[in-house]
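Weekly modeling sync, notes
Attendees: AB, CL, MP (scribe)

Item 1: holo prediction request
CL wants a bound-state model with adenosine-5'-triphosphate before deciding which constructs to order. AB pointed out that an apo prediction alone won't tell us much about the pocket. Agreed to run with the ligand included and paste results into these notes for async review.

Input as submitted:
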Amino acid sequence: MPQTRSQSQATISFPKKKPSHTVDKAKSSSDTKLELTNAQAILLSPCAKILPLSPRKRLGDDNLCNTPRLSPCSPPKQGKKENGPPRSQTSKGRRLVFDNQLSTKSPSKREHTRVHQNKTHSSVPKGQDITTNSEQRCPLEKEPACLRLFKQEGTCYQQAKQVLTTAVPDQLPAREKEMAVIRNFLREHICGKKAGSLYLSGAPGTGKTACLSRILQDLKKELKGFKTIVLNCMSLRSAQAVFPAIAQEICQEEVSRPAGKDMMRKLENHMTAEKGPMIVLVLDEMDQLDSRGQDVLYTLFEWPWLSSSRLVLIGIANTLDLTDRILPRLQAREKCKPQLLNFPPYTKNQIATILQDRLNQASNDQVLDNAAIQFCARKVSAVSGDVRKALDICRRAIEIVESDIKSQTILKPLSECKSPSESLVPRRVGVIHISQVISEVDGNRMPLSQEGARDSFPLQQKILVCSLLLLTRRLKIKEVTLGKLHEAYSNVCRKQQVAAVDQSECLSLSGLLEARGIFGLKKNKETRFTKVSLKIEEQEIEHALKDKALVGNILATGLP
Ligand code: ATP
Ligand code: MG
């Protein structure tokens, strides 16, 4: 379920930049919206001396300018010559003086100050307003003037990404009809103590699993007297492994033996025993149970029709005609045929509605502009109607804008800062960003090797790609579980002194890499069992990543 703003948000932490690096970057970056060529800052306070702002030392967080705990005014540096002349001296050279607050609070000092704000503001491009830190007010009551450099934080991007995850949401717009059918089916069979089966089919990302999960969660609150068993057949080693897996869920204990006649008999006895709750058995990715002779599938579909069966079976798969084509014998036994429900691919309007509904949960000030939503919806509906892809594309497009914005630092007097509750969007995600992501996925499966795209490839994703490469090399297998990958990735992060993200965020990053065509994912009910593989050649990754110092280092050092 997408988390709302109030819920804790997973954040990706990046390594703390070295001060020298930051200064250089700020100095050279064309994005830095700071021009202090002819200016010098003077901060006035009744209790402090004039503290000139040293632009080169006040960029970013490194000099604690943006640290909320501390006074937003500059730390005392009177002792140091290079930090500016004492208050009584006539200032020479570069000065930035801000008097908009002095004019009301400290008029007597006005003659000592001059305003050079125009210079500052003229460097902020239109549409790139200033985002504020979470704590903007000057804690010193008598402080007349506060001036700070703001790193564009862009918390709005985090929030938007959070609501665009592929977790099961509270609301599933555009699936009202399908959900009503499933809900009625379950109510009728559970309340009427009637065994039966339902088969949900549809292309990937059409909401089959999400709708059923949502309904089961709701019904648990509403109805009593039924037990739910949900199995993702993708996680099973073989089709026959479904029986011990069911037995394990029923008995709540480890069942390691292969399914023998004894186990089958026990299972059948359990399902048909007079006493006991109705059993709702959900077999997701059911087409994985394809076996020679289809014995497994036949057995499962026949269970509800055993006399006094308590089983309500729900199968989910992509194949539209699984029961007709693969299980022709069911045709002959009319009563064993499951009720069918197909989930058609989402249309353009439906995808746009879903995206809009999610974004409404983030904030009123929308991160994606309307044209971008429509464009994404049109592109995805034309290819697959897979809303999972649409969500991934939007998150990736937000990431591109976010990393761009985060690299900018701008200067602004505190008096103009908006309250932290106001969510300003420094720059909206537009059609161009969506188009960039789509062309990365469609046209160029390895955007890392492109000059322009390289910078927008986030650090955590680079580390994840390297970790998967190292792991598959070490284990000599093509596919690893997300749990193992996360372990390896955390070790690499520790070694590189980079904060690691948690397992669920790791899954989200893997989704983005899947959207870029770099990772292949096979989902599993349990996050840690999701299978991850590399979709591009090893040499291609190495070649593309090695020119980055960090990535080269990770690959050369290997797994800890
Ligand atoms: P697959 O066949 O690949 O398993 P699926 O049909 O089961 O695909 P889901 O897992 O249900 O697809 O959907 C993927 C994600 O897309 C969901 O977890 C949910 O976040 C989102 N989603 C799908 N349909 C909707 C919807 N109608 N409204 C909001 N979000 C949706
Ligand atoms: Mg599914």
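Recorded for review: The first strand starts at residue 147 and ends at 151.
Action items: CL to compare against the apo run; MP to circulate these notes.
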